[in-house]
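The pair is listed for reference:
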Amino acid sequence: MSSGTPYTDKTPTPSVTYTAPTYREDPVDAKVKRKFRGKGASEYYDPCQDAANRSIQCLNRNFGDREMCSDYFQAYRDCKKKWIDERKEDRKKGTGFFAKS
């Protein structure tokens, strides 16, 4: 029988910290602007492609459950909004992406 001491589980419990996904590249930084300016007229360039790829990976990982990936979708939307807003502002000013080099 037992010696009278209760059993205690000594297995460490992992501490899990959730961090909402964000896009890696700033869609309006100098590196992205150089890439955008250097592309051909018929080439498509999306500075938010990284966020889009991670959204797809999340869907694949979670068997298409969109609720599980809502943070990834939001990160992509935030990236695209920042990118589009910057392009609109530059177009109004005639600077940035649309400036004559």
Observations:
- Residues 30-94 form one domain.
- The helical segments are 30-38, 49-61, 70-93.
- The chain has a mean pLDDT of 78.
- The CA atoms of residues 26 and 76 lie 12 Å apart.
